[in-house]
Queue: 2 jobs
Job 1
Amino acid sequence: MRKIRLYIASSLDGYIARTSGDVDWLFTDADYGYTEFFAQIDTVLMGNKTYQQVLGFGEYPYKGKQVFVFSNTLPGQKDNNVEFVGGDLNEFVNNLRQSPGGDIWLVGGGEIIHYFLKHSLIDELILSIHPIILGDGIPLIVKDASLQTSLKLKDVKTYDSGLLQVSYDL
């Protein structure tokens, strides 16, 4: 069965983006294991707000990958990059996990991460913690007492930039 991996960055205070969705604070001075991770996945999942933000980055970053965007308003539609999915996400994700292929990257954003956590659909979390406090923004984890989840530490990497990367199995 294919693994769903949440590979994401956050500020020290737990935000994955500014309130506007901007991620200008992310370090781009090194690879931080991204190339190796990207080679292990062949499918990308994200919410529609995240996809709209990605479209503003310039060159499309997920070329060569199958990409599904979760949307309540565009299910069944496609564009040059992605297929939009709606309806019963549990059924869709479970079918996807059973299909042949490499690992699956859950990109974000906050709402879809919440859904995946709530339904125990994440197998691994790789979190790059940037040494910056934003004070406000889009939280990695939405406050919800029903999300209590135990994690098993797999690895910790430190970088001279101050970035800390932790990997957990869920």
Job 2
Amino acid sequence: MDRSALADFLTRHREALRPVDVGLPTGSRRRTPGLRREEVAALAAMSTDYYTRLEQRRGPQPSTQMLAAIARALRLTPDERDYLYRVAGHSAPDRMSAGEYVAPALLRVLDRLADTPAMVIDRLGERLVANGPARALFGDHSGYSGWERSEIYRWFTRPDTERLRYPEDDRGRQSRAQVASLRAAYGVMGSSSRAGELVRELQRLSPEFATLWETHEVARRFEDHKVLVHPQLGPIELDCQVLFTEDQSQALLVLTAAPHSEDEEKLRLLAVLGTQQFADSR
């Protein structure tokens, strides 16, 4: 671990960011350039004291989980993220399975979407980050770990809860779409990758998945017109659009409703109330 290089790197990149770059209000009284240390710490979900000690060359070696959070908070490019890992004494992560890393270009768009559900997911259906309306609509998944983080995994292993947000007559189509999406990821990542591990785990746990896997359907379908069922607000008719990274390893999903419709009013209610009232609606 190169403490000096790590500290200088963090300081320089923190000072290069403006609040608007990360979706924060600018404010009128800012004595330091760029973001404050407490703002970076909040974005990375860590204590201000912990982050401050890293910039002061006196912190402990950060874990890879901490580094992933810092890379996201500072909107680092893949090359910058790899450098961060190395000066912190870790190997750079495999770019095919980058874990918590989120492409800065997608984050910049997400930061500007406050009034409609939007989230970034990876090839395996793992939610990497979501805004407030998306958490209110789909539930807060921050407590999930391991394979539970994958929507594809939960769809086939927890059908009694995970499928409730879709109308019953649409669930078969969604099952096929989940498998076809995983088949596409499997083709890119290979049988020895996390995609291959997920396939084998689901073949073991879900006869439905095993049957659908043998159909060899391949598709990455996100642009869609769908109905989602919210426990309190009822059915919400939405259009889903997607923005991919250049290598298509991550996707920003944005859900919108027809203007001046009842569904648009329901989305406004989600944006206002957030997850507090609907904390148990997973």
